[in-house]
Write a structure and sequence with these properties.
heterodimer; A: 500 residues; mainly alpha; two-stranded antiparallel ribbon; 23 helices; 2 strands; globular; B: 153 residues; flat; DUF112_TM (chain A)
């Protein structure tokens, strides 16, 4: 089978000593920042992005991917032990995980989370491997009109699944798109919106945007809630779950993996949403309904499997279509572009080593994570004692030196400061930074396909609805957008994010 | 009237307006058959302004006016120090060199928190400076001097 030769290639790449090392570094960093409240995967990846610029493309993407799914493991540790999600996608785990810890069952809860995540991560990676090639074939047949509509659908879905107000999310996408267009025009070479600054003619530095809006403004958010850092950590006790526990977690893990895998592939699909969906489903079909919220093992197994599965499958649209479905994937796309790899359906054919190497590294990374997280959980717990005061300088210095190292341009650091402050005030006004980052990455792509489609059709906008695939994509986008404005669904959506 | 949304709408109109004016005055807009470099951004800017107006108008009809911009709730000290730290690094990294520049940047940002102690800030900064010199200069081999020309008098 073709798939096996691909996977053999993937493992030969992922098992090279260099890539194995970066996979290991990635999952270690991921677990650490997952455990640390107040430092999420997006901020960390933004911070380390400039450093990966100096690595080989495969190694850097393997490491960044490891940080993302590693954070899913680490986040549950904090959720269970101190009732605080170290990472937003572990928010649901706090409900039953913390209750288990209070009843002296912290060990089995941690083991359930790690084993569920491991199973889900491995199974979802199989989905990535199976779906990638057929999906790429479809995407290769796309013309500019189809691509424009696809990008538009991606942007619309990300808006729908973003928290908060819909018009504000749309506005942030538009700001992101416009920011992405700063620099020389592709067709005429005319400088656009550069304010006469020559450094801007290549566009606004992607890392400055990511670091400013996610790294720096995150610090402000944490400074505001300063002084709420008293933690009480429950003793872990016996780690291994009993036979009864295993029996009860099997179903939820399988269903959670399925839910997470499906939701992860959707544009805008965030790990946190899958976790909520899986938890809600388990609660409604479980025989021990009244135990939920009081330390049901199902309530840990289902969301933990779901969030890791969707973390894994959210790579599908990014790797095969070049469309990021969440801010983390936008950062991965940014990393690819910086490395000179053009994201899109061609990656799999032109750089099979890169593509299959990443896929294979996910299995290796998940295996490493179980080993790191189960026996060594005691070490990670110590990280909770790190004061936030010590973290701020580390974050800022890494962000600054990293961004500076890319182009040696002091201007990029001024942008970091400007974007950081802007980001803080935008968040104060309930504007989310995530859609902005997606827009920023997709801006040039959207314009290019729009202009090509217009040239093809002689300036007739009808091309987007007369091309059948494009029409379907636009129709889906319209339905999604209309569905959110329905009052009943709007209330449900609001509720999901209030719980967050 | 919902003041927060009203301000939000205004911000959108302002940003959209800046881009629209810049595009209209300095770039060729063109037509849909023959698009100039300003066509696509100009359209986006107009849509952004439209969205902003929608947010603002809707805010006028809403009754929740509980938003007050609390100047004291903004962590001003943190905001200024955290924003100044990267700028300082950008200005001094060439002249002072990586090691001293990182140390001072780290000290500046360390004091963003009101509860910072000198011992912790100093300890973290010293460690960070050495660590950065190792990673960036020796491991990644970036062409940044560890000790810069300003200190080599």
């Amino acid at each position: 089978m073709e798939l096996f030769s691909h996977l053999a290639l993937g493992f030969s790449v992922a098992l090279s000593s260099q890539n194995l090392l970066y996979c290991f570094i990635g999952v270690i960093i991921g677990t650490a920042i997952g455990v640390l409240p107040g430092l999420g995967p997006v901020a960390t990846m933004a911070m380390l992005l400039p450093i990966t610029f100096n690595l080989d493309p495969t190694a850097s993407l393997i490491m960044l991917a490891g940080i993302y799914y590693g954070a899913q493991y680490g986040g549950s540790t904090t959720a269970i032990l101190i009732n605080m999600p170290g990472e937003s996608s572990a928010a649901v785990t706090t409900i039953d995980g913390y209750q288990m810890a209070r009843r002296g069952r912290a060990g089995p809860a941690l083991a359930t989370a790690a084993l569920g995540s491991f199973f889900a991560g491995c199974a979802a990676t199989v989905v990535v491997a199976l779906v990638a090639i057929p999906l790429t074939r479809v995407a290769l047949a796309f013309g500019p009109a189809e691509y424009f509509s696809l990008v538009l659908l991606g942007l619309v879905s990300s808006v729908v699944l973003a928290s908060g107000s819909l018009p504000k999310a749309i506005a942030m996408i538009l700001v992101g798109l416009l920011l992405g267009l700063v620099g020389s025009d592709l067709y005429t070479g005319v400088a656009r919106f550069t304010l006469g600054i020559t450094e801007l003619s290549d566009g606004v530095n992607f890392t400055a945007v990511a670091v400013g809006f996610f790294g720096i403004s995150e610090i402000f958010r944490n400074l505001q809630s300063e002084g709420k850092n008293e933690v009480e950590v429950f003793p872990i006790g016996r780690l291994w779950p009993s036979r009864e526990d295993f029996r009860r977690m099997t179903g939820p893990v399988l269903r959670g993996t399925a839910v997470g895998s499906i939701l992860g592939t959707l544009p805008g699909g965030m790990a946190v949403l899958s976790a909520f969906a899986a938890y809600a489903m388990e609660k409604s079909i479980s025989k021990n309904k009244d135990e939920f919220g009081k330390g049901a093992i199902e309530g840990v197994a289902a969301p933990e499997s779901a969030n890791n599965a969707s973390a894994q499958t959210s790579f599908i649209p990014m790797l095969t279509l070049g469309i990021p479905s969440n801010p983390v994937m936008a950062l991965m796309i940014g990393a690819m572009i910086m490395q000179g790899v053009v994201p899109g359906p061609n990656v799999i054919t032109q750089r099979p080593d890169l593509f299959w190497g990443i896929v294979a590294s996910m299995w290796i990374g998940n295996a490493l994570l179980v080993i790191l997280n189960l026996p060594l959980v005691g070490i990670w717990v110590k990280l909770l004692k790190v004061p936030y005061n010590a973290l701020i300088p580390v974050i800022i210095v890494f962000c600054s030196v990293g961004v500076y190292s890319i182009a040696s341009a002091p201007l990029d650091l001024w942008l970091v400061a400007i974007f950081g402050a802007t980001g803080y005030f935008l968040i104060k006004l309930d504007f989310e930074p995530a859609p902005l980052l997606l827009g920023f990455v997709l801006g040039p792509l959207l314009e290019e396909h729009f202009r090509r489609a217009m040239i093809l059709s002689g300036g007739n906008l009808k091309i987007f609805v007369t091309e059948p695939i494009s029409a379907v994509l636009l129709l889906v986008a319209a339905i999604v957008l209309m569905a959110v404005t329905l009052p009943s669904l709007y209330r449900k959506r609001a509720k999901v994010f209030v719980d967050d | 009237m919902n003041t927060k949304s009203l301000i939000s709408g205004g911000v959108c109109v302002f940003i959209g307006g800046c881009f629209a004016i810049s595009a209209a005055t300095s770039l060729k807009i063109g037509t849909s058959t023959n698009m100039g470099p300003g066509y696509f951004p100009f359209s986006l800017a107009i849509i952004l302004m439209g969205t902003g107006i929608y947010i603002a108008v809707k805010a006028l009809t809403e009754s929740r006016g509980d938003f007050r911009f609390d100047v004291n709730a903004v962590p001003w000290r943190g905001l200024i120090l955290v924003c100044f730290a990267p700028v300082f690094l950008g200005l001094t990294i060439r002249g002072l060199g990586l090691l001293p520049s990182v140390f001072v940047t780290s000290m500046i940002s360390g004091y963003a928190s009101r509860t910072q102690t000198f011992r912790l800030a100093f300890f973290v900064s010293a460690l960070l400076a050495v660590f950065c010199a190792l990673i960036f200069s020796y491991f990644l081999k970036l062409p940044i001097p560890v000790i810069g020309p300003w200190l080599n008098i």
